[in-house]
Amino acid sequence: ASDVGAIDEIIDDGKNGLLFPAGDLESLVSRIRTLLQDESRRRQMGEASYKKVVAEFTSTRMAEKHLEFYEKVLGAAR
């Protein structure tokens, strides 16, 4: 994935995906080649991605994070 915005909240470079600088075609090609040549690494990254999404990005967990955020904002306003 290109390293823009908040993508690093989802992708841990080298653990559950590979990041490259936006617009850097050479880096993108290099990372694609890396994954094409290493089935074990692809499998490990896929499993790590699944685990992260299940742990941190379910609808329930996202609702909890939103609630925590609003409680924090409202608490600071008092």
From TrEMBL:
Family matches, as SUPFAM superfamilies: UDP-Glycosyltransferase/glycogen phosphorylase
Pfam families in UniProt: Glycos_transf_1
Gene3D superfamilies registered for this protein in UniProt: Glycogen Phosphorylase B
Chain ranges of the Glycosyl transferase family domain: 1-51
InterPro entries in UniProt: Glyco_trans_1
Leader sequence segment: none
An MF annotation (GO) of this entry: glycosyltransferase activity
Annotated protein name in UniProt: Glycosyl transferase family 1 domain-containing protein
Species this protein is from: marine sediment metagenome
